[in-house]
Design brief:
Length: 209
C-alpha cells in the first residue's frame, strides 16, 4: 500500500497478524512512525526501493530504473537471504532514515511528472522542468538539514550531486543522461498512473513533508 493507506493497513495487521514482522518499503519518511504508533508491540523495519515500477496495464509491471533494495540493520536475516537467493540485489545499511530521505528527495519528481503527463526522461530533457525539480530538491535538503538528517546517497550519488547535473544546459545534460543516468524511455511515475486512474496520490507524504 502507499503512504496514505498505511494507518488502515497497520490496523488490519494488528487485527489479523499482530506478531508479524513488518518491513515498510514505502516512499516517504513518516510510515515507520505511523506503523510503530499503530503496532506498539510489533517489529517494524524500514527499507527503500530505489527503482521505478509502474503498471501500464493490469497484471503488467514495468521496471524503468535500476538499483538494489536497501534494508535497515534490524530486518530479519531470513528476508535478506531469501531476496539474495532470488537474485534480487540487497544492501543492508546502518542508517535507514538517511536513505529514506534520499529517496524522498528523488521522489519529489513524481508530482512534477504527474503534472507533465509524459515519460520521466522527456521531462528531464527540458531545462525548465529541471529548474523546477532542482528548486524542490534544494528545499528538501534544507528541511532535512534542519531536522538533523544526514541524507544518504541514492544509487551512488548524493542529491547535491544530482543538482549539479540537472543545472547543466540541455545539450550537456543529454550526454550525461545517455552515459550516466539510466532511465528507461517509457518510465514514468506511479503518481501519474494514480492520477489517470482517479486514485489518491502520495503528494502529502512527499511534497507535504
Amino acid at each position: 500500500v502507499k503512504s496514505q493507506d498505511t494507518a488502515e493497513a497497520a490496523q488490519a495487521i494488528r487485527e489479523h497478524a499482530p506478531e508479524a514482522w513488518v518491513i515498510s518499503f514505502q516512499n516517504g519518511v513518516s510510515n515507520l512512525e505511523t506503523l510503530r504508533g499503530a503496532l506498539p508491540d510489533g517489529r517494524i523495519s524500514g527499507a527503500v526501493v530505489p527503482f521505478n515500477v509502474t503498471a501500464p496495464t493490469p497484471g503488467h509491471f514495468h521496471r524503468g530504473t535500476a538499483g538494489d533494495l536497501i534494508i535497515g540493520p534490524d530486518a530479519p536475516e531470513s528476508v535478506v537471504d531469501a531476496l539474495t537467493k532470488a537474485d534480487v540485489g540487497v544492501q543492508v545499511v546502518d542508517d535507514i532514515d538517511g536513505h529514506l530521505w534520499a529517496k524522498l528527495l528523488v521522489n519529489l519528481n513524481n508530482a512534477l511528472n504527474a503534472l507533465s503527463g509524459g515519460p520521466l526522461r522527456d521531462g528531464l530533457m527540458q531545462r525548465g522542468y529541471r529548474r523546477v525539480l532542482t528548486a524542490m530538491i534544494e528545499e528538501g535538503i534544507h528541511v532535512a538539514s534542519a531536522e538533523g538528517v544526514d541524507v544518504a546517497t541514492f544509487n551512488g550519488r548524493h542529491p547535491q550531486a544530482l543538482l549539479k547535473i540537472m543545472n547543466k544546459p540541455d545539450w550537456l545534460y543529454r550526454i550525461i543522461m545517455d552515459r550516466v543516468v539510466k532511465i528507461d524511455r517509457t518510465a514514468r511515475s506511479s503518481m501519474l498512473d494514480d492520477l489517470e486512474l482517479g486514485r489518491g496520490s502520495e503528494l502529502e507524504y512527499l511534497q507535504g513533508e
